[in-house]
Amino acid sequence: MNEIVQMFSYPFIVRAFVVGILVSLCAALLGVSLVLKRYSMIGDGLSHVSFGALSVAVAMGLAPLKVSIPVVVIAAFFLLRLRENGPMRSDAAIAVMSAASLAIGVTVTAVTTGMTTDVCSYMFGSILVMNQEDVILSILLSCLVLGMFLLCYHKIFAVTFDESFARATGVKVNFYNSLIAVLTAVTIVLGMRMMGAMLISSLIIFPALTSMRLLKSFKSVVICSGILSVVCFSIGLICSYFFNTPAGASVVLVNLLAFLLFWSIQYIQESISRKR
Question: Residue 53 and residue 260: Cα distance in Å, rounded?
Fold first, then answer.
């Protein structure tokens, strides 16, 4: 207990917990809709776009978050349009954008500041990179994402399960698809500095997939995903501090253990049901 109290005496740990919990919650809630719509890999694509934007911003001496957010939002709209009526499949578009953005980011960094440890922190995350201004901006935007999700919950539910029926009942499907894309883009940018471009998509995918092992209704999966995401992030960050492991990787491993636990429970339940 004394060691845990000591851990929270470090300002960077407190900042990491506050921002991490909010971002994890945002990612988990949006992840349920993205997974059900078979569009979960958008997180991976947008994180690579964010890496490229961050690299360019750092090279130009600009504020990374303020540059990355509008760039990633535009990329999210672009991917959404390709998915709806573009000449390229959405998975192919994500792959192309991911590779191109990653290449741009690495090239810009190598030419300007060099391939230093800063690149590793962007690729795999670091709890040391967030300053006070980043924390305030992250808190405000995370609260905005959560507020918009809760406010539009019923419309997002309708769009997630049946776009044709939702459109027939008067729901503006294109608007709410765009809203999901924008909220996802903002969440990706906020979480990438801590989780890294390679790991941030796990916050979107794992909690939703884990919750779906045991729960069936949209509401129960959303609630369980939010709780799981916050708990797994907290445990992962604590393990990272005590075992001196990378924070992003620790969080992903805890999420993986939770998924395996829920999958095991599901398997046992199904085995018992078959025997009856």
Answer: 35
